[in-house]
Amino acid sequence: MNNNRFLYILLFLLGNLNGAIALDVGVAYVVYATPDRPYLEVNLEIAANSITFRTADSVHLQAAVEVLILVRSGEAVTNYEKYLLSSPLVTAPSDLLDVKRFFVAPGEYTLEIDLQDAYDPNNKRTLSYPLSVTPIKEPYLTTPLLLRSYRRDSTDNPFVKHGIFLEPLPFAVYEQRATRLAFFAEVYHGEQLGPNGYAVRYYIEQDMGDGNTTLVATAAQRKKPSRIDAILAAIDISQLKSGSYTLTVELRTEYNQLVAQQKVAFQRSNPLLDIDLSKAEINEEELNKYFVADLSEENLRYSLRAISALTWADDAEALKNLLAGSDLYGMRLYLLRHFAQKNPNNPEAAYLEYMRVAGAVDRQFHSGFRYGFETDRGRTFLRFGRPDDIIRVDDDPAAPPYEIWVYFNFPKTHQRNVKFLFYNPSLAGEDFILLHSNARGEINNPRWEVVLYSRNAINQIEGSNYHDATHMQRNFNRNARRFFEDF
């Protein structure tokens, strides 16, 4: 049996046997309307770590929960559904997600949801919510449904609306990797708001405590007059720190008069934005939650050497000292900090993308003496990207092989026509050395042409003082300066 799968099974069985885990359920319910009558939509999500997964065969696991949804008016049950919610066959436990819809007449109700683990009679949960259904004859905005994701879909899947697959987020928690908050809502009788249409404004506020809030994001959409319209929107939350937030959606006339407003609360978890990565320590238990914990020492050292091209001054010295020692925790922490600063929502994605490029650079510029990304050309590529043009010269009889890299627009310094000249004075392999560049902050050698043609520099310099000379005499084969300055 696969060791990881065995560990999953053991943890889930032990959790349920000890009674330490109760059903963890997220619920999101919204009242929508067809052209004839309103209906209630109930979205459920049951956390995988709170239910019992049993072996279904030699490879798969499966869980099931008995669900009873009741719509009560006082003591009377006006609508209900009882069913068994089973997970698909999986190789590792995953959350259960479901949606049910009920036609409900206008009135005041109680929504009651009873759940019980099919494989553990002691693992159960009952949830109750107030439910108000109003006649929809005037402009109306539904409660926004928070989404984990959405995509186009033409199937009859129950999560599809208006040709879009809407994956709900019943727990209303956006985890670290989430970079966008998406939501869905519907507007009814928008044609009553005027012939020129109306506006939908939506914004996010952070709960600062004591009833105070701070506006952190806002956006809007213009809508044409219609009886029924859908709102599907997304807001960037990549820079939201951990905390409590509220999404507010407003329906406004063309004159900015507020017609309707709906709010929904959500939580944001973004631990790497909550700390100063340049200073704070991350304990080993927390560090083990990230990709760096899975890297072998060999891969760890290779990765650190790959990012050395991007380090400067004190940071470069700290990295050098780490690589000279054996502090694996320090190495993992350094690597995590580096990529968390690039992408705090998903540092692993930033790491994988960078290492994909670094691996290609290593292969292309490998010199036999060091990794390709540690050569001057490799470092330049990783720091500034692929050049727009490369001039390679191998047949100049008075100079060793050399390359001139050209960047038409250089965002690092906002210069145009930036050039780097690399040469191979040892003629050994592909270990080219940076001799000169016109980029600000890079090696700038006024005597680069004399150095490049040093085999006959004494006799061919311009002027009579070799030590002060910066130019070589022109001849038919000596083209380096023309390439560097004219192209």
Provide a concise account of the structure shown.
This protein has helices spanning 3-17, 284-287, 297-307, 313-324, 328-342, 347-365, 376-384, 448-452, 457-460, 480-486, and strands at residues 25-33, 38-46, 54-55, 61-62, 64-73, 76-86, 96-103, 107-117, 124-133, 140-141, 145-152, 160-161, 164-168, 173-174, 180-188, 198-209, 212-223, 228-236, 243-253, 258-268, 389-393, 402-410, 415-423, 433-437. The chain is of the alpha+beta class. It folds into 4 domains: 1-135, Immunoglobulin-like (Sandwich); 137-274, Immunoglobulin-like; 276-377, no CATH class; 387-486, no CATH class.
CATH class of the largest domain: Mainly Beta
Beta fraction: 35-45%
The mean pLDDT is 89
Instruction: Say what the CATH topology of the largest domain is.
Output: Immunoglobulin-like
End-to-end separation in angstroms reads 64 Å
CATH architectural designation of the largest domain: Sandwich
The helix tally amounts to 10
What gross morphology would you assign?
A: elongated
Secondary structure tally: strands: 24
Low-confidence stretches: 1-20
What structural class do helix, strand and pairing data support?
Answer: alpha+beta
Helix content: 10-25%
Radius of gyration: 32 Å
Summarize the main sheet: 6 strands, antiparallel
Number of domains: 4
* Oligomer state of the chains in this structure: single chain
